[in-house]
Amino acid sequence: MPGGKGGGALYAEDYEADEYEDYMDDYDDQYDENDGPAASPQTPAKTVAKHPHKQKAKASAPAAAAGASALAQCLCDPPPLRPSGRPQRGAKKPAQPPAKLYPHAPPSAAPGSPIQPFAFDIPSPDDKVQQQQQRTGGAKPLSNHSSAVGRTPTQKNASSADGASTSAPNGTVADGAARPVDAVTEELDSMRLGSHAEASTSGGPPASAATRPRRPLHDYKLEADLLRMCQEADRAGQTGSTSPKPHLHLVILGHVDAGKSTLMGRLLHDLGLVDQKQVHRSKQAASQAGKASFAWAWLLDERPEERARGVTVDVAVSRFETPQRAVTLLDAPGHRDFVPNMIAGAAQADCALLLVDGSPGGFEAGFDSGQGSLGFGMGNSSGQTREHAQLARSLGIEQLAVVISKLDTCNYSQTRFEEIKAIMLPFLRQTGFRESSLQWLPAVGPSGENLVGPPTEPALASWWQGPSIADAINRFHAAEREIHKPLRMPIVEVFKGSRGALCISGKVESGAMKVGSPVVVIPTGEAGTIKTLEEDKQLVQMARAGDRVDVSLAGIDASMLTAGAVLCHPDWAVPLVTMVEVRVLVLDVEVPILRGQQVVLHAHAAREQGHVSAELYSDLRSLGRIALRDGGRTLAVGIITNLP
Ligand SMILES: Nc1nc2c(ncn2[C@@H]2O[C@H](COP(=O)(O)OP(=O)(O)OP(=O)(O)O)[C@@H](O)[C@H]2O)c(=O)[nH]1
């Protein structure tokens, strides 16, 4: 296997800043044009990894020059003081620091200086590497290829909401590298889900559905009756959903407290989907809890936990329509603890609104890379604006509207709007977004400025004549429905439905199903049939790619249903693998990703340290994208290039 013994290793080679865009474009373009893989699955997967300092160097030549001299100076000049507080031997007065390298240098920095004298009160970057190596048993830095292995029976990650770095019961994703291949293989065999499924009391089929050889996808043909139903739905312009308009799955992203839920609550109200009574109830509840400013947000954040903490925890789903679009809205949490939930939300989306807090200091807090002025990571203090944008792009979102909120806090300043745009645009380009797929607009959630019509506030109306939020949504294109591929519906939620039955919900990523269709749930291999299909609380007979549905199943042991599993066509089930080769882009990480390092692999709604049910990116993009996280941070994003 490429990547060495037992897998579980991630390899990286040099990566230049602009390569991210090329990397995404390469793949997207090549699949668009050829409908085939950019690199043969047999070809060892290439990994791209970027070095944060290289990225900075390429992003701006003057900054790079300044950075190089600053770094060199820092390394060559002894620090002015020793840890004891006494001067270093031979210490000389530091030269005048170069021009500001990092636009959001902490306020404590010396005027004009990006450099903080290192106080030796926190581990140095070298210390961090060493600590990490000790954690992973003397692991080595990586080079050149990528692969990740899942080894434990699939279970819903029982870790923190973060889902990061807690060990799965039977081991870790990536510790195979240090152990003999045979031992790992044996262990894998003994853990096959076959035994898991056979042990179930449901009387369902053995795990063969999960482990039988993969039938080529091109052999698949949509069943005649389903095809007819899809064609009828096309003609009628609907699939049982309430609207004939093109359907968008829109996710709302952004740093914690950027104003996502407030904006969406107010938007739903202004579009007539939330009545005065609901608003009144929400306002009352919020003021009674001493959180009056969250009244609009509480229209979406309904859970007691969310209201108590004042943050969104899980993705809230609602539906609304604009004049030209039917929209399934996914309000994602912004808090860093809930990034895994954000990933599950973004994985279902075709387009996104990225909310950026325009208030003084708000943008800077959300956009902070946590890298410190010299580009070395200084902890987990980074803002989620960057991480959300990077994850969104790597999860396949190409259309993005950047909404600069809270401008009421700075007199609706156009200068502030333009300043934020000027900083964000190069970053988003570098993240892989095409400039032509980006929209920029201001909005103020609580007062409803620029949500469904032009601004009424003179200070904003004087300079903004561009699109409102509703206009921006109308400009998004609906994704193509992939009905000619076998059924795939990743399970996002398992819940007791209004009719009493246990239901699963999620977005159909490919194929179609109707009431009575046979299905199999991967990874457990449980087989059954579709009992009911519900879309937007209405019973429907059929659901196809692009529909978000609630499904109840007959003949399936309910205990086998977990979020992250995939509902599949029984003859073309998603492959269940213990190892995937991935091509990854390493994000701004504090220390290199090391062989043996534990990571949590996120693939669509699944997060695993164990078995992975995965698709090749070339077969189905939405299920072939992955993110690797550890310690509450996203380390790398990528695509599955091979299922060895
Ligand atoms: N002044 C002002 N305050 C706003 C605006 N939008 C939101 N807020 C306030 O910001 C706070 C956070 O708003 P939320 O809507 O909960 O933010 P969020 O992004 O949904 O937060 P999470 O989902 O927890 O990440 C609330 O007190 C809102 O009233 C705005 O445009 N202007």
Automatic annotation (TrEMBL):
Residues 48-57 have a biased composition (Basic residues). Residues 143-170 have a biased composition (Polar residues). Residues 245-468 form the Tr-type G domain. Keywords: Cytoplasm, GTP-binding, Hydrolase, Methylation, Nucleotide-binding, Protein biosynthesis. Residues 13-35 have a biased composition (Acidic residues). Residues 58-76, 199-211 have a biased composition (Low complexity). GO terms for biological process: translation. Signal peptide: none annotated. Its main location: cytoplasm. GO terms for cellular component: cytoplasm. It is found in: Cytoplasm. GO terms for molecular function: GTP binding; GTPase activity. PROSITE patterns: G_TR_2. It catalyses: GTP + H2O = GDP + phosphate + H(+). Pfam families: GTP_EFTU, GTP_EFTU_D2. Residues 1-178, 193-215 are annotated as: Disordered. It comes from the Eukaryota. CDD domains: EF1_alpha, HBS1-like_II. PANTHER family: TRANSLATION FACTOR. This is Tr-type G domain-containing protein. It comes from Apatococcus fuscideae. The lineage of its organism: Eukaryota, Viridiplantae, Chlorophyta, core chlorophytes, Trebouxiophyceae.
